Amino acid sequence: MTTAVPTAAGPESTAFRRLASLGRAEATLLLRNRSALFTALLLPVLMIGGRRSTLKQQAHSHPGLDIDALLINGTIGGILAFVVYYNLTAAYVGRRNELVLKRLRTGEARDIEILAGTAVPAVSLALLMSTVVAVGGAAVLKLGAPVNPLLLAAGLALSIGIMIALAALTSAFTKTVETAGITTLPLLLISQFGSGLFIPLEVMPDRVADACRLLPTTPGYQLIRLGWTGTDGSAAATGFAGTWSTAAPHLVTGAVWLGLAVWGAVRCFRWESRR
User: What is the pLDDT at residue 183?
Assistant: First the structure.
């Protein structure tokens, strides 16, 4: 009579373990991609000089602009746009065309875990770079502490959520990684020039500014600015309590855009190439 020898069980598969595993694999691929690293690390920083000169020119005709606060807010917005939206669109397209996404769906990971796991390195890098810019900028430019950290965090979370959903949606209309630079260009231009990053909304004509406040990337960026400085440029700066009434329209508009972006991504996202 033989006695069965118990085998050692592996670690239990959980959503966190699966996300961590997917995130590590995606981070390895990101570190090996020099063009993606250049876009993620250097491009947003290189744009600081262009933003500063543009803001200085606008300050001559619009006295009272807080150039330093706008510069930091614009740089963080640029980081979110390029590091999360552009890089993640290219990542989704690349993994789809390599049939990685299709193979992952045959395993234990759920669809949302696959998409989120792919986004982990880009989001982590964006948050790290934003923190460095914020801390370094606050020290060098002598900006005050955030007036409402809750709104600042809400703006970051809203912006990142919309960028991830829009990246998944854009990937459905992007054939190759090389063409991602073309398909992502409209939203990148909108986020830079229409959402208050290069051109503050308060220097625009009223009707143009009102239209720009309805763009998908504007609410999150405005919440980041409002949470830090106590104003979105439409009124004088206020304290913690006063920022909530100003934030309400941005929160509503952002939530609507987030819902629409997620709906579009779920409806249109492609898990394998059409041949």
Answer: 95
Asked if 67 contacts 56 with a C-beta cutoff of 8 angstroms, the reply is yes
Tokens (6 digits) for 271: 């898990």
Q: Is 274 left (phi over 0), alpha (psi -120 to 50) or beta?
A: beta
Q: What phi and psi, each to the nearest 5 degrees, are found at residue 64?
A: 105, -10
Write out the DSSP string of 92-136: HHHHHHTTHHHHHTTSS--HHHHHHHHHHHHHHHHHHHHHHHHHH
Half-sphere exposure of residue 252, counting CA atoms within 13 Å on the CB side? 6
Percent of the chain topping pLDDT 70: 88
Provide the CB-side half-sphere exposure for 200 (13 A, CA).
27
Cα 35 to Cα 43, 99, 170, distances in angstroms = 11, 22, 19
Q: Are 92 and 272 in contact (CB under 8 A)?
A: no
* 164-200: pLDDT as tens digits: 999 999 999 999 999 999 999 999 999 888 998 888 8
Give per-residue pLDDT as tens, 209-245. Answer: 999 999 999 999 999 999 999 988 888 888 999 999 9
Structure tokens at 141: 């430019």
CA distances from 271 to 10, 16, 93, 106, 265 (A): 29, 22, 9, 12, 11
Element containing residue 75 per DSSP (H, E): helix 67-79
Asked if residues 128 and 78 have their Cβ atoms less than 8 Å apart, the reply is no
Name the packing angle between helices 149-171 and 243-268 (round to 10°).
20
Are the beta carbons of 259 and 108 closer than 8 angstroms? no
pLDDT at 12: 64
Question: What angle separates helix 15-32 from helix 87-97, to the nearest 10 degrees?
Answer: 100
pTM of the predicted protein model: 0.88
